[in-house]
Amino acid sequence: MQPLTNRSKQVDRSPMTFSEKLYLPSIAKGMAITFSHLFKKRPTIQYPEQTRPFSQVFRGLHVLNRDEEGRERCTACGLCAVACPAEAITMEAAERMDGEENLYREEKYAAKYEINMLRCIFCGLCEEACPKDAIYLSETFAPANFNRQGFIYNKQELLIPNPLTEKEAYEKAAGGRVRKPVNE
Amino acid sequence: MTFSLLAITLDWGLVLEKFLLIVVVVSISLGFAMYSTYAERKVAGFLQDRLGPNRFGWFGLLQPIADAIKLFAKEDIIPNKANKVLFVLGPGLAMLAALMTSAVIPWGDTLTIGDRVVSLQIADLNIGMLYVFAVVALGVYGVMIGGWSSNNKFSLLAAIRGASQNISYELAMGLSIIALVFVTGSLSLKDIVVSQQTIGWNFFLQPLGFLLFMICAFAECNRTPFDLPEAENELNFGYHQEYSSMKLGFYLFAEYINMFISSVIMSTLYFGGYDILPFVDETKWGLDSNVLTLLGFGALMIKTVFFVFFFMWVRWTIPRFRYDQLMNLGWKKLIPLALINMLITAAVVLYLQNGWPK
């Protein structure tokens, strides 16, 4: 195979010269190299206090989107669950009753909506499959948990904050990816 | 009758003074070793572009305390088929041997408190160097007993490697010291320091001897590149593999105390001990003798800190020797070099004393 870089070198197997057998010059060289690293900039990010900025297209934890009036967009059509290659999504549909028009955008809604974050591979196919702009992958990731049950996120945990009543929290949760009502 | 005579002749002030000195020296050694563990991790971090421990306390300064609490809280396991007495004795012996050396080290000149002149040395033995050798040789027992009593093949192999390494390198170390003794004419550590105050540091007279001594000190402390008895990634932890809790802590701690003590001995033998600057007569500075003594102690500590840093610097630079390379270096290179160094030194000393033979 042709070398991909010009950095490969033939291994030198000739016997060591006297100065090499002394070891000390090469040890001094190596120690100078390690000493120079004392003054180098450290790439460490102090995690809980500092975080690395995510890309605009980062695919993290899911959010269930709301429309401009704060109504849930999901109609429990099940396309996301069908599209999901890891079979992480389960849902149960319910019919909207009279007087619930301010809660749900259409006549049908998801009464139960669960995503198992241990199964999820964060591929974003659910987001592509959704015809209602209801599910998005946000710029956060699932925090650690002590038991498996804690990784199954229910609808209340997934729903984005209401853009009318909690505007700041909504903006924070939406990040750069969620299509906001303003953009429509 | 004899008892009462003893009580009269015994200088109780001297007893108290020595007792206090022992307490202070041992606590300094322990405290220094404790913070060496922190410094080791910090230095390792910095040399590898990391930060090292920085969570507990300011810059992680309370980390050693957290480590100690962790070690104490761990389950203390004694293997079923281990020799229980020796298994417990091993770490204690390692610790004892590590701490005993500090008795003959001159930590400073004399302090004058009231009308009492206090020497900052626990015992000025006229065979101080031999005592240091004897105690350092005892350190092998900790390794050997720990490895043998845990009844584990890997521990035993590592212990045998450690013992043979220590014995091999003790020879070259002894030979390099003999050359030093030719120069100073005394085995007492105090005399060695005093002679360096007048004729300059021994390092300038015995550079090769210092190099040999330092390499052997690395081997005696079981530090990289000679940490074959430990060899974390080959013998899965070596002779203290079966140890847990504070017994393991004692072994690890003994290593750091050994490192501290050998740094002090290197500074004492080759870098003037508590002498502040080479070729300078400090008594002409016109300072109070007590202040000068404390400054001298500070100078010794600065030298020691440098050598401890050097130990760590080397550890995070050089890979481990193979066992045959280690033995080759010890027997075929260091010992002949030490012998040549000794012969040349002896010839020069004789020439300077008696002149050219007629």
Strand arrangement, major sheet of chain B: 1-2
Question: How large a portion of the residues of chain B is in β-strands, by DSSP E?
Answer: under 5%
Q: Helices and strands of chain B: which structural class?
A: mainly alpha
Number of strands of chain A: 5
Low-confidence stretches of chain B: none
Low-confidence stretches of chain A: none
Tally of contiguous helical segments of chain B: 12
- Average pLDDT of chain A, to the nearest integer? 87
CATH topology of the domain at 62-183 in chain A: Alpha-Beta Plaits
Provide structural commentary:
The complex is a heterodimer of chains A (184) and B (358). Chain A has 184 residues and is an alpha+beta fold. Helices cover 21% and strands 13% of the residues of chain A. By secondary structure, chain B is mostly helical. Chain B has one domain. Chain B is 67% helix and 2% strand. Chain B contains twelve helices and two strands; from the N terminus they run H-H-H-H-E-E-H-H-H-H-H-H-H-H. A two-stranded antiparallel ribbon of chain B has the order 1-2. In chain B, a hairpin with a 2-residue loop joins strand 1 and strand 2. The model of chain B has no long low-confidence stretch (mean pLDDT 86). At the A-B interface, helix 2 of A face loops of B.
Give a brief rundown of this model.
By secondary structure, chain A is of the alpha+beta class. Helix content of chain A is 21%, strand content 13%. Chain A has a domain at 62-183: Alpha-Beta Plaits, CATH 3.30.70.3270.
Throw out a few tags for this protein.
heterodimer, A: 184 residues, alpha+beta, Alpha-Beta Plaits, three-stranded antiparallel sheet, 13% strand, B: 358 residues, mainly alpha, 2 strands
SSE map:
The complex is a heterodimer of chains A (184) and B (358).
Chain A: H1 18-21, H2 24-36, E1 62-64, H3 79-83, E2 89-95, E3 108-116, H4 125-129, E4 135-137, E5 152-153, H5 155-158, H6 167-174
Antiparallel strand pairs in A: 1-4, 2-3, 3-5
Chain B: H1 2-9, H2 12-47, H3 63-73, H4 84-100, E1 110-113, E2 116-119, H5 128-149, H6 153-184, H7 189-199, H8 202-205, H9 207-220, H10 245-270, H11 289-315, H12 323-354
Antiparallel strand pairs in B: 1-2
Helix pairs in contact in B: 2-10, 2-11, 3-10, 4-5, 4-10, 5-6, 6-9, 6-12, 9-10, 9-12, 10-11
